Amino acid sequence: MPHTYTDPSGLSRYGWTGALDQTFTEHYEAGLVPARISRVDRGLCTAITTSGPIRATFAAPHPPDPLLTPCTGDWAALRLGAEPHLAALLPRHSAIVRSSASRSSHGQVLAANVDTVVIALSLATPLDAAKLERLLALAWESGAQPLIVLTKADLATDPEAVHAEAGALAPGVDVLVTSVATGHNIDALAALLRGTTVLLGPSGAGKSSLGNTLLGEELLATGTVRAQDGKGRHTTVRRELVPLPGGGVLIDTPGLRGISLHDAADGLEQVFAEIEDLAAHCRFGDCAHDTEPGCAVQAAIEAGELPERRLRSYHKLQRENAWAASRTDARLREERVNRQKAITSHLRATYRFRDQQP
Question: What is the C-alpha to C-alpha distance for residues 142 and 271, in angstroms, rounded to an integer?
């Protein structure tokens, strides 16, 4: 008998829709129930179901691959019982992925099925343009919409100047100056959030304080920052998903001190769109924008239309992304070779067994 979607209470507030329900049909038929993963730790995950949160086990993918491992924001098919088990993940419509902290060739998924990426940066310290460009590339590559939130306006000397600087680095992205202490622009921020929102930014940016203000209660751990450099400790130690009072859900993340790109070519094109547009007018299609004649990018720098720092940042992030991609390609080649070796070994053993038969 076909399943009828009835907007299950307890899951709709976490983002469950009729479209998701349709994709779940075969899982319903297998006796599984839908759930959204709110946190993952120590080989277990907390999954939100229609009857509330449940701790469930899951099998790690083999070979290990963080991209296939459950993470906060995933929709999952859960098998209930004495020991609930995560049986399958639903396809992700977006995912924030960076190179893994171990510097392996795998990517690390920070959050899945995200609609809005809030990039939080503190106005209490000078704007780090290079860090903002990295975070923007991460956000655009995910498939979600970035939103820059400049926090701690009450501690800033000239917040509007920083607002203009950030806006120049991120055309097409909304930039809000906020203050948790005074409540400045908090309502405006809440009105811009859609669906699933993730908070990204360095330690000390005030992400958890901002999250608590949006949630209307102290659910997220907060801490102090060092006076000498404005950096904070990792008061948020794991990613966690909680519903917002006005609708949608919020994912808080630990502060990102290392932000390495992973397969983010499209995100870089979006962040440096003006360089991509200029490059289309270079004399040579493979122009490196260095000393080549007829380079439209260098001409724009000489004319004062493009900051040279911007081009340096573009080149640096492109090199980093290409290096990460080459490591991934090498790993995939090695995995293909190992699979072929295993198949060949199995066939040889089969042939030897067959030849030994009377």
Answer: 13
Residue 208 assigned to a binding site: yes
Q: Which fold has domain 96-252?
A: Rossmann fold (3.40.50)
153 is in an annotated binding site: yes
Does residue 233 register a pLDDT over 50?
Answer: no
Q: Determine if residue 289 is labeled as part of a ligand binding site.
A: yes
245 is in an annotated binding site: no
The verdict on whether residue 296 carries a ligand-binding annotation is: no
Read off the pTM. 0.82
Consult the annotation and say whether 282 binds a ligand.
Answer: yes
Mean pLDDT of the chain: 85
CB contact at 8 A, 82 and 222: no
- Residue 87 annotated as part of some ligand binding site: no
Question: How far is CA 79 from its chain centroid?
Answer: 27
Q: Where are the CATH 3.40.50.300 domain residues in the chain?
A: 96-252
**Domain(s) of CATH 2.40.50.140: residues in the chain:** 12-91
Domain 12-91 has CATH 2.60.40.10: no
In 201-261 the beta strands, taken as DSSP E runs, fall at 240-243, 249-252
Question: Is 281 annotated as ligand-binding?
Answer: no
User: CA 270, CA 145: separation in Å to the nearest integer?
Assistant: 12
| Average pLDDT over every residue of 44-53 | 93
How far, in Å, CA of 207 to CA of 223, rounded?
10
To the question of whether residue 99 is assigned a binding role by annotation, the answer is no
Residue 131 annotated as part of some ligand binding site: no
Query: Would the annotation count 9 as a binding residue?
Result: no
Tell me which of 308 and 261 has the higher pLDDT.
Answer: 308
Q: Which residues pair with 241 in a beta bridge?
A: 251
Which token pair is 153?
């306006």
